[in-house]
Amino acid sequence: MAAISKIATGNGHGENSAYFDGWKAYETNPFHPTDRPDGVIQMGLAENQLCFDFIEKWLMEHPEASICTAEGVSKFKETALFQDYHGIPEFRQAVAKFMGKVRGDRVKFDPDRIVMSGGATGAHEMVAFCLADPGEAFLVPTPYYPGFDRDLRWRTGVELVPVVCDSANDFKVTIDSLQSAYHKAQEANIKIKGLLITNPSNPLGTFKDKDTLKNIINFVNEKNIHLIGDEIYAATVFMEPEFVSISEVIEEVECNRDLIHIVYSLSKDMGFPGFRVGIVYSYNDTVTSCARKMSSFGLVSSQTQHLIATMLSNDEFIDNFVAESRERLFKRHKYFTWTLSQIGICSLKSNAGLFIWMDLRKLLKEKTFEAEMDLWRVIIDEVKLNVSPGSSFHCHEPGWFRVCFANMDDYSMEIALSRIRNFMVKNNETMVPPRNKLCRRTSLKLSLSRSLSRKMDDFIMSPSIMSPQSPLVQART
User: Fold this and answer.
1) CA-CA distance, 323 to 317, in Å (whole number)?
2) Are residues 22 and 133 in the same domain?
3) Phi and psi of 157, rounded to 5°?
4) Which residues form the Aminotransferase class I/classII large domain (predicted)?
């Protein structure tokens, strides 16, 4: 048999990591309230499923948005025929307007700089191809999204150099950490072409304040390297202070705008990962031109562009949707983290994203990544929850786990929380959390935890919840 390329057969995809292994465990035995109640609950997927009823209502009221309805069929022919890689003008205008809206309309985006791609995955690869040659590298603060190893490295040959951040200062990015990583790369003869930051952060659920962003922009200007801002969670900020975008900060500081690039998508803010709408927004004319040519390999379908353009152009709907999404994320996050705190589980204080950064360091048998993986296997195999270990996010401290809370209905969430609580009680680990800034403080003792346990059991086993006719059950069937 003829040989297959090294790129195709190599491990560049990163599929053999614990992050993807957890997905496989879920896919082989997925939880279902009636068919598979002992299955694995998916808590490793950062999806925003809390507002689909809101979107479905709009779609029912605006059937013309789809070319596959009687009301929209008049647009079928022109949408089905060839569209060039610039994208439908109405689509680019609507996306640019939406990007400004979710940033409080404090900055405007030029539709002519909107370059589309097949999701943020394709957008990141496109930027990597534009900015760096094989063997060159980007700095990336840790912990960071495991998919970056695939998105930026696999087919481009670009390397990622970690910028080590730790819990002592809530994993904040500092100039000292950036300088240290940059100098280590120089000593290893690695050419740094840029810095990639996620803001808000996946997996931390935090975002960078204006002073931090100013320091970062000053750093890239001093080094004359590019800054890529992944802002795909911009509209998931559900508590004050308000999100600050790179696009706002560059209006206030002197910088070379040719070094500034933003990656965006509708996968998280709107909950549309299946639509594969990714965006590259560069302030560099050459990068914009090159990226647009490369976008031919990952265009968004014209049908999707038409639907998105119609939806995002409806100001009243978008205003209400963004407000409702933030409110629901806030309530889910508050309930989820409060319940965990009652059973002695701490998490990093956060106000954005679709996940929490859960601290299970006290459950490790020893402070090693081997012990972290042992604990993770118990959570997967016995507790039947797919959570993601910190090591898969390149975290340099064992014992942290990312847990997604917005990709399930209320019933599934209660089952998941009940399983966590039972695991903690079984292992006699329910205790008063240490009183530090990383922990949500509680003075409850084990007896109160057991009281909560009984209340949760009463809720889960109640006839109205367990009935197949329950809306919560039907939402999963």
Assistant:
1) 10
2) no
3) 80, 5
4) 41-420
Both ends of the chain: CA-CA distance in Å? 45
| pLDDT, position 352 | 94
The answer to whether residue 104 sits within a structural domain is yes
- Pure H helices in 15-87: 18-28, 52-61, 76-80
Give residue 340's identity as a one-letter amino acid code.
L
Q: Which domain holds residue 105?
A: 64-314
- Residues 269/232, Cβ–Cβ less than 8 Å: yes
The model carries a pTM of 0.85
CA trace torsion 403, 408, 409, 413 (10° rounding): -30
Q: pLDDT tens digits, residue range 374-429?
A: 999 999 999 999 999 999 999 999 999 999 999 999 999 999 999 999 999 887 64
Tens of pLDDT along 12-34? Answer: 666 666 666 776 778 888 899 89
Give the model confidence (pLDDT) of 417-468 as tens digits. 999 999 998 876 444 444 444 454 333 333 344 444 444 444 444 433 333 3
The amino acid present at 379, given as its one-letter code, is I
AA letter at 210:
K
CA–CA distance from 372 to each of 7, 201, 363, 377 (Å)? 31, 22, 9, 9
Q: Are 435 and 441 in contact (CB under 8 A)?
A: yes
Q: Are 61 and 284 in contact (CB under 8 A)?
A: no
Q: Tokens 């060159």, residue? A: 136
Strand order in the sheet with 355-359: 346-347, 355-359, 400-404, 388-389
Question: Residue 63: is the preceding peptide bond cis (ω within 30°)?
Answer: no
CATH of the domain at 155: 3.40.640.10
pLDDT at res. 1: 60
158 and 127 in a common domain: yes
Q: How many domains does the chain have?
A: 2
**DSSP letter assigned to residue 5:** P
Answer yes or no: are the C-beta atoms of 429 and 344 closer than 8 Å: yes
Q: Radius of gyration of the chain from Cα atoms?
A: 23
